[in-house]
């Protein structure tokens, strides 16, 4: 849409705000990537004005910039939190993840990646109290989480190298935490080869989680996991108990994702 054609009431309309919001919409509608030139062409604005608006949105955290293109970040979720909860991806996946949580008796979550963090966009919890309490919008480091490793495995070699090069390992959270880049890379390659991830007490003692990718049109757009405090059972037992249902639920959600416009989703593979 050309921003000059947006209807408004004289005196009560801030054109620069309208242009910024229109650019956010265009980035989403473009399939996740938009250059300055493309944005200027679509809005009818001159390139200099378009660049300033995009740089402002980037500075505010709503866009990220790489390879001469802009994309939405998960901070956009904060603009529409209540709408997201009721009508967005949270609503889309709520039925399947609640059913999975009830079946397993474990917490089930969906996340996307933003840079070196995963961002929770949906969550279902069993009646019993879990040691880790996380809600929509919560963030965790990508390195020590099963969903994080699924989303890392979705990156191509160059993107993975770039992200790993920026990682400064912090002191181990537990005795099980991987804090070596080469070991982490090996783990990510293992995840990529097998299509699922298990993290056993790396983030917190007494917490084990398994994750699988959520895909739309062959691209990984998010990750799904189940977390258990039943670390008394062997890892292989946890895998046998949880993974088949996790994969089945991911397939169900994938079918649902195919029914919604791509711009309503945030593909993890393109972030940072």
Automatic annotation (TrEMBL):
Query: Would the keyword Transcription regulation be found if you checked this record's keyword annotation?
Result: yes
Positions of the HTH iclR-type domain: 14-74
Gene Ontology annotations of biological process type: negative regulation of DNA-templated transcription
Q: Which PROSITE patterns match?
A: HTH_ICLR (PS51077), ICLR_ED (PS51078)
Which of UniProt's keywords are assigned here?
DNA-binding, Transcription, Transcription regulation
Molecular function per GO: DNA binding; DNA-binding transcription factor activity
Q: Name one Pfam family in it.
A: IclR_C
User: What range(s) does the IclR-ED domain occupy?
Assistant: 75-259
**In its UniProt entry, what is this protein called?**
IclR-like transcription factor
Native species: Pontimonas salivibrio
């Amino acid at each position: 849409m050309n921003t000059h054609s947006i209807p408004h009431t004289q005196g009560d309309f801030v054109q620069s705000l309208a242009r910024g919001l229109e650019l956010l919409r265009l980035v989403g509608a473009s399939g996740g990537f938009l250059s300055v030139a493309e944005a200027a062409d679509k809005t009818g604005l001159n390139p200099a004005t378009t660049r300033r608006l995009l740089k402002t949105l980037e500075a505010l955290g709503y866009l990220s910039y790489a390879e001469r293109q802009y994309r939405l970040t998960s901070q956009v979720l904060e603009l529409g939190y209540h709408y997201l909860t009721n009508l967005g991806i949270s609503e889309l996946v709520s039925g399947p993840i609640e059913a999975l949580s009830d079946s397993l008796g474990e917490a089930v979550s969906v996340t996307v990646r933003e840079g070196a963090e995963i961002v929770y966009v949906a969550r279902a919890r069993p009646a019993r109290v879990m040691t880790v309490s996380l809600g929509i919008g919560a963030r965790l480091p990508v390195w020590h989480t099963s969903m994080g490793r699924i989303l890392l495995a979705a990156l191509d070699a160059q993107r993975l190298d770039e992200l790993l090069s920026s990682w400064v390992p912090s002191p181990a959270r537990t005795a099980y935490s991987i804090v070596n880049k080469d070991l982490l890379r090996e783990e990510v390659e293992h995840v990529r080869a097998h299509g699922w991830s298990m993290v056993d007490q790396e983030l917190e003692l007494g917490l084990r989680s398994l994750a699988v990718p959520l895909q739309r049109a062959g691209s990984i757009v998010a990750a799904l996991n189940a977390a258990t405090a039943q670390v008394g059972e062997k890892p292989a037992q946890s895998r046998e108990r949880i993974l088949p249902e996790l994969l089945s639920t991911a397939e169900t959600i994938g079918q649902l994702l195919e029914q919604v416009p791509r711009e309503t989703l945030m593909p993890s593979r393109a972030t940072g």
